[in-house]
Amino acid sequence: MQYTHLPSVITVVIPHLNQRLALFRCLAALEAGHRRADEIIVVDNGSTRPPTEICNQFDNVRLLHQPAAGPGHARNLGVEHASGNIIAFIDADCIPSPEWLATAQHVMQSEQAPIAGGDVRIACDDPKSLKMVQAYESIFAYRMDRYISRQGFAGTGNLVVRREAFDRVGSFAGLNTAEDREWGQRATRMGEPIHFAPDMRVFHPARASFAALQAKWDRQISHDMRQGTGWQGNVRWAAKALALAVSPVSEIPRIVTSKRIEGLGNRAKAFICLAAIRIHRSVRMLQMMKDGNAGYYVSRWNRSDAG
Questions:
Q1: CB 56 within 8 A of CB 5
Q2: Residue 56: is its pLDDT beyond 90?
Q3: Tell me, what DSSP letter sits at residue 207?
Q4: Maximum Cα–Cα distance across the chain
Q5: Is beta strand 158-162 parallel, antiparallel or unpaired with respect to 115-123?
Q6: Under a CB-based contact definition with an 8 Å cutoff, are residues 251 and 274 in contact?
Q7: CB 241 within 8 A of CB 282
Q8: Which alpha helices (H) appear in the chain, and where do they start and end?
């Protein structure tokens, strides 16, 4: 696939829902970056209090409103109004590194990189003494390298795309789909390669509680459940659920050798949280299969696990 070589004009698209303080941190970090965005489009997705005054503090930020629920719809509206030939997606609760957009521009200049996913790390005030969820997510969450190499997608918390590639692949799906995964896998099937850019880094806070982590996985499980039906699908689903419950032991070597955290205490916390969340996932998978009520968990997007 050939792409037009033009001077880089970068539009950053940020979906927002009830995360005002996080959005301010994100915008402030973008403003302080080594390469500023040419345009930032914040798309509010139905906040109780739209972030008008926050966006007004930054001279290159435009605020749009998308009433249709779901971050995919919000991102689509942002792209529709974007003037850049490079679209950089980041979530409102992410903090870009100072080098984020400078690295993105460099990566997009490569003929082999129409789409790139960057590294996402957990933001921690004290890396030597992590909370349980922080320790777990530092190792197991937002592994863009694995998402790209094993599943053919990159998460939209750190995704940069040539506008030509986005137009070819098409819009993000709605709330009933894991929209970043579906979009990335669609791009991969269409022959649009996705590259991992480890120096294109953003930081994401860990979820505030174990309940928020549960809500995240409930939503993901409900998306996955929609992909398989019939008795054969139910058998595979049940087998996967049971295997998941006993899988934490196999992850011990990964926890012990991970360079994303340090200290025996933090590694022990990571294992405890891993075991607890995988048991929860196993139980929830069997429960959803029995009850057939996956839609309820999809509707909880960005409410109980915001931040």
A1: no
A2: yes
A3: P
A4: 56
A5: antiparallel
A6: yes
A7: yes
A8: 20-31, 52-55, 71-80, 100-108, 132-140, 144-146, 163-169, 179-189, 210-225, 230-245, 252-257, 264-291, 295-298
pLDDT at residue 165, rounded to an integer? 95
Is the model's pLDDT at 304 over the cut of 50?
A: no
Question: Per 3-state DSSP, what percentage of the chain is helix, strand, and coil (rounded to 5)?
Answer: 45, 15, 35
- Report CA Rg, the chain: 19
Choose among 216, 202, 203, 201: nearest CA to 273.
216
List the end-to-end C-alpha distance of the chain, in Å, as a whole number: 38
Q: What is the rounded CA–CA span in Å between residue 213 and residue 275? A: 13
| Residue 307: pLDDT band with limits 50, 70, 90 | very low
For residue 21, give every residue at least 6 positions away whose Cβ sits within 8 Å of its Cβ, in sequence order, or none: none
* pLDDT digit string, tens, across residues 23-54: 999 999 999 999 999 999 999 999 999 999 99
Tokens of 150: 């094993």
Specify the pTM. 0.81
* Residue 31 one-letter amino acid: E
**160: closest CA among 111, 195, 123?**
195
